[in-house]
Amino acid sequence: MNQKTLAKPRVRRVKMFVMEVTAYHEAGHAFMAVYLGARVRSVTIDPDRDDGPRRQGDTAVEWNLAGLTEREIDERSVIVALAGPAAEMLYTGEPFHPGFVRECSGDWKAATDAASKFLHKEEKRIAWLEEKTKGLLRMLNGPAHWAAIAELADNLLAHETLHADQIEDVVRTWLPSTPD
Q: Residue ranges per domain, the chain?
């Protein structure tokens, strides 16, 4: 057996692991958005290769703005942004700071930008974001929450893209009533 023959299965395993991590990451965003009352138009691990930033996945979230203050929307946007990295950490078993991992830097920036609207001092904002991340790790690790994320991730791996009704069905299966 030559080196190329030995390398191919390893390369495939690495690519599959990256896809799995991405699926859990995007499933974390989608789950949390639905949990917090948003509609997720779609979630994918095969995003368009457009002129935007290079990314492994994409979650399109729509908020029902009726009855929510601007601060509530910003706080929920923070939580959804951080839920992807939190789900990824739980799946891989590797704790990391979302601000220091290239693949999560866009999520950290989105969370930081949203939090900066109501937490003006950087030190307080960073501490608040880190506490929210810790809380998400505890919450998402709950059996029903993790089961919903795992089912979303499995469906993403099978179909690459899920649409609103598919996402809702999975989340509602595991969490028949979600808080608004």
A: 3-174
